[in-house]
Design brief:
heterodimer, A: about 250 residues, alpha/beta, Rossmann fold, six-stranded mixed beta sheet, 9 helices, 10 strands, globular, B: about 300 residues, mainly alpha, ABC transporter involved in vitamin B12 uptake, BtuC, two-stranded antiparallel sheet, 13 helices, about 75% helix
């Protein structure tokens, strides 16, 4: 456990009478891909919201790289190295693809209380943004408005924005959502390439992607982790089969 | 092309008093100063509303705070514009920080309502200041003194001072919009959650933007007090916030010249229609409706499309 990048202990969230997250504890190891799976409404996205800081937990502790970040605001967690993507694409649609990513670079390179010097003169910032775009395979689309990108490309940009923050842990909320098989394949390759350079907590419904990418898998049902382990263990876990996976995945 | 148009307009503005005075149109020099002061106020709202996407319905509070600060200093025997105007900017900025710090914790309709409520509170504060005119408003013995061999009591001199301030403010807005800060503010308008998610403390940036808008509005208020030699508490009334908002919408939300074009158009329309009918607001309303329906980017958007 010494090399845990993220440790969650007893995380809880309720909305009115509904318990969305019910005492979740789990550990994400450094450099690995940890998948969080479970049926709709299990509380996966609520956990991502709490880990990123978009939502305050009712109880529990979040420790990132040995530091308690439970009460740290959203934007400060990003500065610490904890960034997320969104299940529903959240980009700057009227900005160019390059400008989108350049903003994420701008956020971590000095103050933006600069009122006089033209941003366009900061070539280093845009060069760095370009590098990130190449990394996610959007290098050729830099000068297109983000809103006109194809759905799959917008999902790639979504990941690019998180990557450009220089995060050491990425929280990816269903990066494959709404993708065709070809686009999914490209995204799987992209996430695969990230392995080793940073850690990933991956929420995903595409079981093929999860079992190909993940080093560890946790299964969430009704706000509780019912199983956590290597993919092979999860595949053969009786309770997981009954609750979620069903027979087809295991065939 | 755009640069040429800008310089042409600036040249025309510089030439205007030189032509108007011999023709006996002194009244219009004063009128043009009034338009430019409103253009400054509307541009400051445009920074907040157009660039920053904050639907502030209380901008009149900052104009009023600036006007009263300058007016009170003048009444208390501080005639220098070098003290009165910066003081107006400072007081308006501090007020904007206080109001913004509270209001910016809310969103949407609540933000509109809370900024409106704060401005109305300030209106009643102004009305309640019996020493400084109360409901009657504050009459000023003279215009401020600026030195440098310039006499602000002369309408043409006052005109040029206002023109210089407006030109400087618009150039500042132009620089700001293209600098890091402008990019951040526009991106927050576009997608605030995403800005948080890439590490920007959005609340702080919005507050700075709100404060700059308030500060410039305060300067406009000080100029208006000097121009009229009078501070009317109605400057802080909520309909004044509405007027500024109409100017921004008419001129072009989030466009550099939106505030300027809107102020020119609205005050000219008012002047022209009111010659023919006391129901001039009906005519202005119809034109505003047409702009919103057929040119949602305002006059600046129209000009960009055909220019």
């Amino acid at each position: 456990m010494a090399d845990a990048v993220l440790a969650i202990d007893g995380l809880a969230k309720r909305f009115g009478g509904v318990v969305a997250v019910d005492g979740v504890s789990l550990t994400v190891e450094r450099g690995g891909i940890h998948a969080l799976i479970g049926p709709n409404g299990a509380g996966k996205t609520t956990i991502i919201h709490q880990l990123s800081g978009a939502l305050a937990p009712d109880a529990g502790r979040i420790v990132f790289e040995g530091r308690d970040v439970t009460r740290v605001p959203f934007h400060d967690r990003v500065a610490l190295g904890l960034a997320r993507s969104f299940q529903i694409t959240s980009i700057f649609r009227t900005f160019t693809v390059l400008d989108n990513v350049a903003l994420a670079v701008q956020a971590r390179t000095g103050s933006s209380l600069s009122f006089w010097r033209p941003l366009a003169a900061e070539t280093a910032l845009f060069e760095e943004a370009h590098t990130v775009l190449e990394r996610v395979g959007l290098g050729g689309r830099a000068n297109v408005a983000a809103g006109v990108l194809a759905h799959g490309e917008q999902r790639q940009l979504e990941v690019a924005l998180a990557l450009a923050t220089n995060a050491r842990l990425l929280l990816l909320d269903e990066p494959m959502a709404g993708m065709g098989p070809e686009e999914s394949e490209r995204m799987i390759a992209l996430i695969g390439r990230l392995k080793g350079t940073l850690s990933v907590l991956l929420v995903e419904h595409d079981m093929d992607a999860v079992f190909r990418l993940a080093d560890r898998i946790s299964v969430l049902v009704n706000g509780r982790v019912i199983a956590s382990g290597a993919p092979a263990e999860i595949r053969s876990n009786e309770e997981v089969r009954r609750a979620y996976l069903g027979e087809e995945v295991l065939a | 092309m755009r640069r040429a148009a800008t310089l042409a307009v600036l040249a025309a503005a510089i030439a205007f008093p030189l032509v108007a005075t011999p023709l006996g149109w002194e009244f219009y020099v004063g009128f043009a100063s009034r338009i430019m002061i409103y253009a400054l106020a509307a541009s400051s709202l445009n920074l907040v509303l157009g660039y920053g996407g904050m639907l502030s319905f209380g901008h009149a509070a900052f104009v009023g705070a600036g006007a009263y600060t300058a007016g009170i200093l003048l009444t208390e025997g501080v005639p220098s514009a070098w003290i009165g105007w910066p003081a107006a900017v400072l007081v308006a900025a501090v007020l904007a920080v206080v109001i913004g710090a509270i209001s910016l914790r809310t969103r949407g309709v609540y933000f509109i309502m809370i900024t409106l409520a704060f401005a109305q509170m300030m209106y009643y504060v102004a009305v309640g200041m019996k020493t400084y005119g109360g409901e009657e408003g504050l009459r000023l013995a003279s215009r401020p003194v600026i030195g440098l061999g310039l006499d602000l009591k002369d309408d043409v001199t006052f005109y040029y001072v206002v023109l210089a301030i407006l030109a400087a403010a618009l150039y500042g807005l132009h620089r700001l919009a293209r600098a890091r800060f402008g990019r951040v503010v526009e991106a927050i308008r576009e997608n605030e959650t995403r800005m948080e998610a890439i590490g920007f403390p959005t609340y702080r940036y919005k507050l700075v933007c709100f404060a700059i808008g308030g500060a410039v509005a305060g300067l406009a208020g000080a100029l208006l007090a000097g121009h009229n030699s009078y501070v009317n508490p109605n400057l802080l009334y909520w309909t004044q916030s509405g007027t500024l908002m109409i100017m921004v919408i008419l001129g072009g939300v989030g466009h550099l010249y939106g505030g300027l074009l809107g102020a020119v158009a609205l005050l000219l329309l008012e002047e022209v229609f009111s010659v023919y009918t006391i129901h001039w607001q009906l005519g202005v309303g119809a034109i505003l409706l047409a702009i919103v329906l057929f040119a949602p980017k305002g006059l600046a958007g129209l000009a960009a499309k055909h220019g």
